[in-house]
Specification:
heterodimer; A: 308 residues; alpha/beta; 7-stranded mixed sheet; 3-stranded antiparallel sheet; 9 helices; 12 strands; 28% helix; B: 266 residues; 39% helix
Chain lengths: 308, 266
């Protein structure tokens, strides 16, 4: 967790920029919004989102949250689709290493701030960790009710029947609640919240989590939060209970059966493999001597086995 | 909601309006309207366009606060309450749970992005139903009652014709068993044969469910078929009230006489 006094006193790490890129007043404003969000779990707090040096959709909300929280004693991890080594994750990580002089890591357990778009790491989170989510669309009712005035009234008065229309549509069409990501959740039995584009596989990880979860939507100018030890219930019908995705395949590299899998097409001969989406989790398992059916595969050798 | 519950209820009015007026700046919407509506009764509001029918309906249904006057509603035979003195969440709950509102244009009353079935099931979900199979059954039942092909339950409303959309809207507004339904020109813009079937349908449903209804229309034939009582409006004023047959067969006010004589005879 950041220590603001220390952050304010530390010299700017890049000439001409304040520590952690944003000016101190902006960071205060974001912290105030964050405190309010923590005080009212699941409630979307408006904030004065700033222009960031990346386009909307690349994580401006998450970057602003991280910038307002980060201090020199933090350890920062950034993942995109669960992986530490994708372009967006590498860029944001190096951005904060540069402007905030912060230590970065790929190890989930070592990080104090984890910025993410699509996943919650497989390794259980601890009470000294903050998850920062980059949210494209914070309003779970938006697809059904386009008026912001109306959706706000619905949240205020707990009129949540409409949210079930989306589930109804899905069950009627596919025989199950099919939405795989952004699956609506009830926070502390009061506010319905969109958990951003994380797969529903990760929804149960938020329930009574030890860590603080913060959600930032830059374009939509909203911050919301799931504080530690808060109930998070995924919505469902009585006769169609909530289920998460499961795979018959095991991870090709580490042999994991219980993690969230990405399907990778290998060639045009219909060969494919499944691999853990959480790259650190997979690497850790391989380092511990576990291996999957495709470890040491010819393809991997050609391309040079993924370095870890 | 059952017919017996209504029969046992004290014979007080379900909805009563006292001195309801609404102006739009200098333009008069409606002026000093008084009436009472009893459970199971159908009230028709007729008049030419611009006479204040829709303004009055909006005031009655809690969508537009009148400048003067009060509107009281007795929920389940209880004490009448001024709907504009209720808190906003309570008024919204009343609108959602005890009332229905059928718009002239089905597109205003339906969610065009979700299927016909979900449109009909939404009021049930608003009432707290969380059992899919149960809601599905009721939805199918209602689509049958409004004579729609149940194989099309999961089709989007925009793939239905105007008359079918209107029937989906009617099902959506009756499925949760409201005690009062507001209808704004429910058959406007539909061709005559569809109109006739729709009117027949509404009449049967309203009678069978013993619902009260306020129906705004400029079509006297619709009023004749559906309404027990009529209110004739002109330039914001109610100029004549009475039993439907009485008003249409023996109009007293010059404007009512004009309105009745203007109906085309074939």
């Amino acid at each position: 967790m950041s220590q603001t006094t220390q952050a304010q006193q530390s010299p700017a790490t890049v000439d001409g920029y304040n520590y952690a890129y944003l000016d101190e007043q902006t960071k205060r404003m974001i912290r105030r919004a964050t405190l309010k969000a923590v005080a009212i779990p699941g409630y979307q707090v408006p904030f004065g989102s700033r222009e960031m040096p990346v386009p909307y959709g690349w994580g401006t909300g998450g970057i602003q949250l991280t910038a307002s929280l980060v201090g020199p004693d933090d350890v920062f991890k950034c993942i995109d689709q669960g992986a530490d080594d994708t372009t967006n994750a590498v860029s944001i990580r190096s951005f904060f290493a540069k402007v905030a002089d912060v230590e970065t890591t790929e190890a989930t357990g070592d990080a104090t701030i984890i910025q993410t778009r699509h996943r919650i790491p497989e390794e259980p989170l601890k009470d000294n960790q903050i998850m920062v989510y980059q949210v494209p669309q914070p309003e779970p009712l938006r697809g059904l009710e386009p008026r912001e005035t109306e959706t706000r009234a619905m949240h205020a008065y707990e009129e949540y029947g409409l949210q079930y229309v989306r589930l109804y549509e899905s069950v009627a069409r596919y025989g199950e609640v099919s939405s795989g990501a952004g699956y609506p959740v009830m926070i502390d039995e009061r506010y319905i919240m969109s958990p951003s584009p994380i797969p529903k596989f990760d929804n149960p990880k938020m329930h009574m989590s030890e860590a603080l979860h913060l959600f930032g939507a830059g374009r939509e100018k909203r911050i919301y939060a799931v504080p530690p030890f808060t109930t998070v219930r995924s919505l469902a019908f009585d006769d169609y209970p909530f289920t998460v995705q499961s795979w018959d395949e095991t991870c090709g590299l580490c042999g994991a059966t219980d993690s969230y899998m990405d399907e990778v097409v290998l060639n045009d001969k219909n060969e494919r493999m499944f691999v853990c989406s959480d790259s650190h989790y997979c690497a850790q398992r391989r380092a511990a001597g576990l291996f999957g059916p495709m470890a040491g595969h010819a393809l991997a050798k050609e391309e040079g086995e993924t370095e870890q | 909601m059952s017919a017996t519950a209504i029969a046992e209820a004290p014979a007080g009015p379900l909805l009563s309006a006292r001195g309801v007026s609404k102006n739009y700046g200098h333009v008069v919407g409606c002026r000093n309207v008084d009436f009472e509506l009893y459970p199971g009764e159908v009230l028709g509001i007729v008049g030419e366009s611009g006479s204040g029918k829709t303004t009055l309906l909006k005031c009655l249904s809690g969508r537009l606060r009148p400048d003067e006057g009060s509107i009281q509603f007795a929920l389940d035979g209880g004490e009448p309450q001024d709907i504009y003195e209720l808190s906003e969440p309570d008024r919204r709950r009343l609108q959602r749970e005890a009332w229905g509102f059928v718009h002239q244009n089905a597109r205003d009353g339906l969610r065009m992005r979700v299927s016909a079935g979900a449109n009909v099931a939404e009021p049930l979900m608003n009432l707290g139903n969380r059992h899919f199979g149960n809601m599905r059954e009721q939805t199918i039942d209602w689509l049958q009652r409004v004579e729609l092909d149940i194989n099309r339950i999961d089709d989007n409303p925009k793939t239905f014709s105007g008359g079918m959309q209107q029937r989906i809207q009617i099902a959506r507004n009756l499925v949760h068993g409201p005690s009062l339904v507001f209808m704004d020109e429910p058959t406007g813009g539909l061709d005559v044969s569809v109109q006739a079937r729709l009117l027949d349908l509404i009449r049967n449903l309203v009678r069978r469910l013993n619902m009260a209804a306020v129906i705004v229309t400029h079509d006297l034939a619709v009023a004749r078929l559906l309404a027990d009582r009529l209110m004739v409006m002109q330039a914001g004023d109610v100029v004549e009230t009475g039993l439907t047959d009485q008003v249409l067969d023996d109009p007293q006010h010059p404007y009512s006489q004009l309105l009745v004589s203007a109906v085309l005879q074939i």
